[in-house]
Amino acid sequence: MRYLIFLTSFILIQTSAFAQRPTDTGKRGGARPKIGVVTAKVTDADSKEPLEFVTVALFSAKDSSFLTGGATDQQGRVKISEVQVGRMFAKLTFIGYDETITTPFIIKPDAPEKFLGNLVMTASAKALDEVTVTAERDMMELGIDKRTFNVAQDLTTVGGSMTDALNNIPSIDVDQDGSVSLRGSSNVTIFIDGKPSNLTSESTADILDQIPASSIERVEVITNPSAKYDPEGTSGIINIVLKKDRKGGVNGNASVTVGNNNKYNANVGVNARVGKLNVFGNYSGRYNERWQERTQTQKNYDRETNAFTGSNVQNTKRDDERLSHLFKTGLDYDFNDYNNVYVNATFNTGEGTNNEKLLVNYYDQNDDAYDLFLRDNVSTRENQTQEYNFGWHRTFVNPNQVLDVSGQISTSNRVSNGNFDEYGYDGNGGLVSSPSFQQRNRNDGPSELYIAQIDYTHPLSEKSTLEVGAKSTLRRIGADFTSESLQGGNWVSDDSLNNNFNYNEDVHAAYAMFRHEAGKFGYQLGVRAEQAYTTSILDENAITDRQEVQNNYFALYPTVHVSYKFAQQREVSFGYSRRVNRPRGRTLNPFPDYSNPQSLRKGNPYLKPEFIDALEVTYQHGWDDITLTGSVYYRYTHDAMQRVTSATPEGVTILSWDNMDNKQSYGFEGIATYNMTKWWKFTGSTNIYNLQINGNSGDLDLSNQAWTMNAKLMSSTNLTKTTTLQLSGRFSSRRATAQGHIDPMGGLDVAVSQRLFKGKGTLQARVSDVLNTYQFNVHSEGVGFTSDMTADWESRVAYLTFSYRFGQMNKGSKKKRKKSDSSGGGDDMMDMM
Q1: Consecutive sets of 10 residues in the chain, 833 residues long: mean pLDDT of each?
Q2: What is the model's pTM?
Q3: What gap in Å lies between CA 405 and CA 293, rounded to an integer?
Q4: Buried b (16+ CB within 10 A) or exposed e, 44-83
Q5: Is 765 exposed, middle or buried (0-12, 13-18, 19+ CB in 10 A)?
């Protein structure tokens, strides 16, 4: 439908040109130079919203002959180049709106640029009740600087979580623990609505699994961001935009999902726009039960002779219950055509229960069993997050001149309680009937995030723009752990385990960026300066003194972007950026996590940030039905942060962190969309890269390298006018780690959708991992040990979802119009400051 609207615009321009072209009298003068540029912004007279696809045609004021024309973009902006010198007027036409004609204006040789200002169009009274224009978005919108994935169009994530939605997106992978990676790197920055958030600052995997996929409007992937963005994240930025509507009148939608084995999801959203005021609210609730099984076999060797000394096998079975609620509300108000203020709030609560049984069997060098124990762990967790965003958006007569002032306050607290009962070996091949050891603990994890930001964009000319801004970000992350053991019928404090860790981070930044276009050639140069103050503090306890580690540093982050447009839908670009990945929280806390006494985890307070130099060349070529985008990229990471596993002489493994010398990654990524017919579409992607890790941790050499390939393919078929079938498959080849590898894995999801009630209702059914092939296998080795782990979880799940859209447009905007960017929930990443 999007292309039909463009075609209609083109026909209107050509029809006007033919109807109003004067007859040839044979009198011809010298041709006037076509050096002019005409720009404008077009909005709805009632809702003040920008109008897309409006036809703007220029006519001679002398004889009304057609000169040239264009159509507005998603922001309602139009730019008409190569306009001949002379006096003229503009005519605006759009389906469902009254025709608008401007007063005449002049393009002069010494003043070739003309900005017509903000032009308004009024909805036609006759057409209001008749016209329905639905310009549906493509599932994937590819650009040189970013890629936007409209997950609302992805049927195979219906009823799932945000984790499911991300796992279907090219370039992004999510492992069995919920860790998100972009182009093979797990050091990626995740934004919510264009900003960092406490929703993703700690325990990202748990939070993403709590948020329903139905609350997401789109996901934006920026692999080489400009200087205006925070430079954090090795591989770039993933911006998750939650749903928010700005349509006129009162509108809403509701959905409910049921999955097998007690999986439920409900979502409702309401938006009301009256005149200059827009108010919205969204609620999502999710309840989920899942199981997971894991087996790890560890073989131990003498550190001197390398002789086999014995082994242990750890079998874990876990049942999870999770309940979460997400509520987002807000309002924005247009004081006039140039000033808008907004405030919104997000509240997230979650709770869960894990019932985990860990059985460990020990074998000697002859593979004879000699000991075992069972650790029964029942843990609960609760988290509460509240986040407030507010700002002022100021435009000027020239809509490209913009001032943004914004702030954010976000607080979160995550509380987990664990109860451990340990059953020992009875000497006869079994377990004792009563616990030989009992322990309970509590971990409070508060976090705070404060952001103040100002951004200004100033057009120096029609082709040059200067952007400047400043930002301060303050983070406070804590972890207060207390433990007690049952001794003689009384609970006694474990003073040697109790610890309190705090991390404080203040980052103050300023940036400047210059952009210029010269015909088909364009470039963008930027630099961001940041001063970081970081402090990690471990309070004194029974076995350690107070530890305080400060790391303050100043750094510059330059960016370069160059592009050349050969023709329509054919463009090549080059990008360079310097980035940083800062350690936080668990990676810095030196106190071990004893939840599994056979496998301990701890942080490294002396871990340094890693700095990344990233280069990328991208080429995009489009035809009528096919779009191909190919990228060649290279990343060099200084002081690369790396997980390191070691083992004690007793066979207990310790997982910690250390800085390697460097890490290099280079590869190719290709994305293709193919509309094979009007009713059958394909989207495919592949990422082939080589990862090289160079360095050591103590005596352990961690150098390793390997080639890896990830591939995803989605097919969408319209079986009838109201029925759609989708298949989504993904595959990952063997991947290298610093101490081993991860085996290949893949799977297939299937979904079908049926539209009901004249398109207002939708019934959707889907099955994830139809073939039940998802399984995670990891091999690792170090000084004195080798380890093989297999993880399996409830990946094959069937869901049934019913959704319904309701509402009534206001009198000023009854025309049902779905713009390609009308329900954002957050600023567009490339317009965001």
Answers
A1: 42 40 41 82 81 86 85 83 89 83 89 88 57 48 67 61 73 70 75 67 56 74 86 81 66 89 90 85 91 94 90 94 91 87 92 93 91 91 92 86 94 93 83 88 93 94 92 94 91 90 95 91 94 93 85 95 84 91 86 80 90 92 86 93 84 87 91 88 90 83 85 90 89 86 90 87 90 90 90 92 74 36 34 31
A2: 0.76
A3: 49
A4: bbbbbbbbbbbbbbbbbeeeeebbbbbbbbebbebebeeb
A5: middle
